[in-house]
Structure formats: structure tokens, C-alpha cells
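Appendix B. One record, verbatim.
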Amino acid sequence: MSKGVRRQREPLSDEEIEFLTHLANGNALARQRRRDRERAARQPPPDPS
């Protein structure tokens, strides 16, 4: 097995770049929402006075 031998790949098309961008943004949004939910769960409920 040779090390460092990589197949050259064609550049991504605009559609592929757009798809990957949407995918990454969706993942980031899901992580942020999860963090927000976890943070809210750790905080005590507001005082109802």
C-alpha cells in the first residue's frame, strides 16, 4: 500500500457546494438548539411572584 497517493478529484459543482453549505448550516443550527435546550434545562424556573 503506497502512502500519499491520492486520486485527483474534479472540483465540486456549484450545486454540490450549495448542498454541503445547507447541510453544514443545518447541523450548526441543530447543535445550537440542543445547547439552548440544555442550558434552559440547567437553569431554575423563573420565580412566579
